[in-house]
Design goal:
Length: about 210
């Protein structure tokens, strides 16, 4: 099955994506993770997008679309995919329909007022890439999985979060209607706890 995960920054897409891949084994493709990996390794792509991403803006469409198209052409995607962070605007959605249209779009809905708190408490591991929240692990700098170093993502700073939320409202939210019209949209209550949200997803995916 080809699945797109839609939702505002900090809605728990990444966490649920790991849960979904674990149970259903579709390859998890996160454009945010791909960009961050490239930034960390200072690749030409990473150097190109670093400033844009740190400011909370979107990476250029052409570049992002090419990246995803290339990734979806790999053998592991022939039976489906789980896209996380793409598409993020109408242009990207139409392009995706052109080369590999999704079957289902899971729309994770959360109370936008809670997002700032959710994101400022987020910590990511510089070694294993894991993502955690201080409400669950405490305010520690050590990764609970691999003992690596935990940091706050550059684009998780308060000022940047506001920008990302604005970008979401303007550019990504219109996709909800786009996929609703195609009859592919399924709403997921993202205000439940991690297990609760996952149960909602399992109800939809079967
Ligand atoms: P979030 O935590 O907001 O869901 P992601 O990890 O998905 O964030 O993405 C982080 C940043 O990477 C975005 O704010 C954006 O700058 C860039 N990015 C990710 N996916 C895309 C995309 N499809 N198009 C353009 N830029 C993207
Ligand atoms: Zn780790």
């Amino acid at each position: 099955m080809k699945i797109v995960l839609l939702g505002p920054p900090g809605c728990g897409k990444g966490t649920q994506a790991s849960n979904i891949t674990y149970k259903y084994s579709f390859p998890h493709i996160s454009t945010g993770d791909i960009f961050r990996e490239n930034i960390k390794n200072k690749t030409p792509l990473g150097i190109k997008v670093k400033e844009i991403i740190d400011k909370g803006c979107l990476a250029p469409d052409e570049l992002t679309v090419e990246l995803v198209k290339d990734r979806l052409s790999k053998a592991d995607c022939k039976d489906g995919y789980l896209l996380d962070g793409f598409p993020r605007n109408l242009f990207q959605a139409k392009e995706l329909d052109g080369f590999s249209a999704p079957d289902l779009v899971l729309n994770i809905k959360v109370d936008l007022n809670k997002i700032e708190k959710r994101i400022t408490g987020r910590r990511v591991c510089t070694d294993c890439g894991g993502s955690f929240h201080i409400d669950f692990i405490g305010d520690t700098a050590t990764c609970p999985t691999c003992q690596g170093k935990l940091i706050t993502r550059e684009d998780d700073k308060v000022e940047t979060i506001r920008k990302r939320l604005a970008v979401y409202s303007e550019q990504t939210q219109p996709l909800i209607d786009y996929y609703k019209r195609q009859n592919k949209l399924r709403d997921i209550n993202g205000d439940l706890n991690i297990e609760g949200v996952f149960l909602e997803i399992v109800k939809v995916l079967g």
